[in-house]
Amino acid sequence: MEPLDGNAIAGLLFEAFGAEMTTAVGVCARCRARAPAAELRVYLRGPGAVGRCRSCGAILIVISQIRGVACVDLNGFASLESPSGEVAASGGAPG
Questions:
Q1: Cβ contact 49:42 at 8 Å
Q2: Domain range holding 46?
Q3: Strand pairing of 41-43 and 49-52?
Q4: What is the dihedral of CA 33, 60, 58, 92, to 10 degrees?
Q5: Residue 85 lies in a domain
Q6: pLDDT tens digits for 7-51?
Q7: Whether the Cβ atoms of residue 6 and residue 37 lie closer than 8 Å to each other
Q8: How many separate helices (H) and strands (E) can be counted in the chain?
Q9: Is residue 12 part of a domain?
């Protein structure tokens, strides 16, 4: 299956965060690579959208819809900084 880039989930990210997030810069919790969400490798087949790190392939984000509610798992990010400079997520798996 050929991955798409992070722009493929722009609408899902906007729905979940209420802001344009493809320019949000995240840090992978596994390899510490730093990149905007638009550079994620995205896979849309399955029960949700999966965004993986371009550097190491780790799962950074999973977005699914459950009964009309966007459910977002950001556990793969060590941090995710929104374009406005706010930290949207911090934590993730230990490095």
A1: yes
A2: 4-79
A3: antiparallel
A4: 80
A5: no
A6: 999 999 998 888 999 999 999 999 999 999 999 999 998 889 999
A7: yes
A8: 1, 9
A9: yes
